[in-house]
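Inputs:
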Amino acid sequence: MFAVLLIRSFGLHAVLRLCSEFHRFPVLALLDSQAADASSRQRGRAPLLELTAAAEAAGVRLGMTASQALARCSRLRFIQKNCAAETAAQEELLAHAAHFTPDYENTAPGVVTLDLRHVVQTGDGPPTRRGDPRAHCLPDLLRETFAHPLHLGFASTPDLAHLAAHLGPAPDFSCRIPPETTKARAFLAPLPLDVLPPFSKEDESFKRLRQWGLRTLGDLATLPRDEIVRRLGLQGGTLWDYATGQNRRLLRLVHPVADYSQDFQFEHPIETAEPLFLVLEAMIETLCARLASAWLVAHAMQLKLRFENGLTHERELRIAEPCADSDLFLRLLQRHLDGFTATAPITRVVLEMQPAPPPHQQTRLFENSLRDPNRLAETLSHLETLLGKDRIGVPHLLPTRHPDGFLVRPFLDAVDDSPQWRRPALGPRREGAPSPDSRVGAPSPSAEARLSLLPPLRRFRPPLAARVRFEEGRPAEVDAGAIRGHIQHAEGPWPLSGEWWDTTRNWSWQEWDVWLESGAYRLGQQPENTWQLTGTYG
Amino acid sequence: MNTIPTALRAAALRETLRERFPAAHSGAVPRCAFATGVPCLDCFSIPQGSFTEIVNDSLLAGSGVLLAAVLDKARQEKRLIGLIDAANAFDPQSHHASTRLLWVRCRQIEDALRAADLLLRDGNLPFVVLDFQLCARQILQRVPASSWTRLGLLAEKSGVTSLAFTPCTTLSCASVRLRMEAVLGPEISHLSRSEITARLRLHLDRTRTGIMSPPFAPPLEPPLPAAAFSILDGTSAPNGHSIIHALPLRKAG
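Outputs:
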């Protein structure tokens, strides 16, 4: 099913929606914008482009010059055509159409054609939107949600719907043409030839039809198509098809510019969360509606806050399974902002959605193995708020030999297993392994294989300061507060160093693996001869 | 070990009660065993959707080795696993990298409890490991039993299997409690992880699952090292280190 949204006297309507003072004058006519710059004599010869119903009732007709119209009706007021106002009104009409379907055509000024085949269910009653639990009548929805008088037409083809929109005289009339050809012809028969598409009115064929004395589509439909094609060519055949409801064409769909971001500048800086959430909620609703209208979903959103002191806070919040659920995004933002403290009042907020096509199939085993990926994203966001961003995720080793050199990557960003660079082993040396001295700078033959040779370490974070007593060049006793005792066995030292090329960041120390009665520990010596217990084995 | 027959008797008593009063147990969800892939754990039939506590009184019991084995098996089988690190002690350089490991670094025990609550509620990760090994015993024992009970109920409801490493008996909600025996010595620096894992000894301390489990881990079939030593009998090894027991490991059980 196709629908056409039509605004009659679109030029007049576009100006009237902007200038409310003209509503005091019901008898109005639209003049070309060039007429205003011309002399008064030329202005009087300018033809009328559009009329209000009151002007038509007063005897004014289209095609008259301004002087002729004034002679008929002295109360007539003239309005200059405003292209900018028409563009704005057309955009409003297109936005209204986009709210109902992603497939729509910008047919002509004041005319938009909607392809509703995928979003509307039809039956004996009026058409309704699929998934609408209350089964609202679609024509009523289309009219009620638009602020201006709208003519509606529903039919099985775009052009038939366009003609149907012209059928009713009342502004709120909507018409539905049955799909059967014979019934459609009967419906269309009383329509004047003026309702034929705008491209055809200046055409020679259209003028010839008028010269033949044809006034309605019914007059045209009674003539044989072959004879019309013989006399008027292919264009005549198209007009005949149009008049009989048999013309079929594809819509030239509108592809709106993808802008899934919202920017809001507060008039006064805000210091509490409530007004921020009010704004964010409206932003998310708008952005999710935009995404849904384009049949897209979002896999992440980016929040940017600007503070009065010039600082900014930026954060990307990701979800595991892309969706356009505004409630979910709002909950994610709430979770994130629950644990956030601003350093200054907020002056501006920017929210941007990262669009993605809806997930139709399983693309990654990992993502789809989750029961409810979006719930996990919410839980992770909650955990980040609770613990901090760098305290939850997937451990990722840094390309350094520095002990405890790692970072925590977001869990949802984690990719499939891939070979990672690993530093050489730091644990006790196994028989046959390289000597302690050779470990510095020595490439690891197989990081994975070597890992399996070492007992795992549990680190003390922060390390425990220790005092160490040496005997014969080896540590003999350690005292780190709760952990103290005679060293039964020690292996080392393992000298370590790195970033020697940078005088500000270079480091070096040595480590021992020591055994006490209570357990096995890793003992580290800083260059300043300070000792630390950095972890425990086993 | 007096506790083991007691535990078995308790399980038998529960079974008898279940048979005689089936209505009182009609709401109980039958549980199946969760396979971690680590033989010395799986032989105890860890129930799915419940807590299993592994108590390590000594740092020489090898809980870190067992934890590494559990994480490594999960990595090999590409399973999602959560690690709630209550003492922030996990060392990524000592473990194989896995993108399916969610590491939660906590500052204190309360953080770990909240994180466990969230992950168990979430239910997306089927297996969650809680590492309390380096936490202070006094603080752990101050955690009210109701907190553990709530976590146990959450695990049961969401079906998440949880494994907790603790330095002392802590979890009142544990369906299975295992106790590790200190078996490690300096010789482990000459053994591979698989060899060390094969040395681990776990005892069944308590079970509430009704699944009959052996009181000890059955004899394993580890790859025998060329020289397997133990600190137990104090003999010296050929390479100059102290220690060693002469028995092959497969007879140690």
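Remarks. The mean pLDDT of chain A is 79. Chain A touches chain B through 66 residues (CB under 8 Å).
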